[in-house]
Amino acid sequence: MDEAAGIVIAGGGLVGAALALGLRTSMHRVTLLEARSFDADSGDARVIALSHGSRLLLERLGAWQALTDVIPINTIVVSQQKRFGRVELSAREAGVPALGYVAGFSVLRRALIAALSTSEVNVVEGCVMRDFEGGASGALLTVECAGTTRKFAAQLAVLADGADGMRMARVEERDYRQSAVVCDITSDAPHQNRAFERFTPHGPLALLPTARGWSLVWTLPSSRAHEIIALDDAHFCAELRAAFGSSLGDLRVAGARQIFPLKLKYARRAHIPRVVLIGNAAQSLHPVAGQGFNLGLRDAWELAVALRTARDPGDFAILNNYFNGRRFDRTATILFTDTLIRLFSQNIPLLDRLAGAGFIMLGGISPAKNFLVRRMMFGTHG
Ligand SMILES: Cc1cc2nc3c(=O)[nH]c(=O)nc-3n(C[C@H](O)[C@H](O)[C@H](O)COP(=O)(O)OP(=O)(O)OC[C@H]3O[C@@H](n4cnc5c(N)ncnc54)[C@H](O)[C@@H]3O)c2cc1C
Question: Hey, which of 15, 71, 149, 293 would you mutate to test ligand 1's pocket, going by the most ligand atoms within 8 Å of its Cβ?
Fold first, then answer.
């Protein structure tokens, strides 16, 4: 056996790193295994909209303090292309300092890793988990590090290796046949801490405020997304203006475009003896309404709380309680995002009309707006 540790986390993305931080003051030896090098720039153009609840968790993890260029969102404008009805959610109306915050994906990752560097967590980079087993007395991970096979024994293995790694029985999957085009944008009008979510017949289009202007997340049928990403800047911006409208004046491309295929994927059962899944490894969602990391962070936090003082962190009763405790948040968030997509971007006339009517009503009903605001800010705890 190469290594023996209390808790081994496979996957040092945002969620795995957050869990490792949450366990830094625990009584367990913690090892974080990551396939890539932490020094390498992830080159990921996406930004992450963080809920107010996530800010509070990141503060407790000691990572918020190291975040740079975080932009508060004071207003969210939700609208539908070719339909009346527009909803404005404002921090002032909700009585909070901000509805959420926008941080760069790479900035967030660096802040989490920097906070880990002053902890006792054993961080192992450049090692790919190839296989895992869970049994009554322990878990065993087979890991490849620079061509050498190593075995890690643990009381508990946590799989935080993202959606591609989801390797439990009974994985449910809905291929939206959509992809997100992500790119930095500038506009004539300043962002004034506003975020826009516009539902088009092809899929939602979001503009999130950043230090340089906006981050665009434009969901389209995959074939159309591949056409759009290949356009030159002038034609790309013309298509964007046609979908978004002219309320921000001229829109200009300010960075490389990236494309992300979108699927809903979740494991019906996210734990087996001495192995548990969290973050995208447990559920990977459509990015509409920016819920994926916020949900994964709550997974990481709740699991850390459950494990911190446990004598045996792989105890089945502890994992079962954790999983049952996460069930409502998980199911509600999956349903929330999936329903938004099905209602607003399936191009089915009756559904489309219902969605339009829902919008007009939502604009006028405070409890409904409050529900939406609190859901965006805190998840199901709102
Ligand atoms: C376009 C887009 C926009 C989004 N916007 C938002 C948003 O605004 N707000 C929000 O909350 N969420 C958003 N999300 C979702 C969010 O990005 C994810 O939920 C989050 O990044 C998931 O983190 P994770 O750590 O669970 O998984 P991942 O980010 O997939 O990380 C997995 C990690 O595991 C490593 N790994 C993989 N396999 C192995 C292996 N075998 N061995 C060792 N390591 C391995 C990988 O290298 C990686 O570092 C968005 C997603 C997309 C696609």
Answer: 293
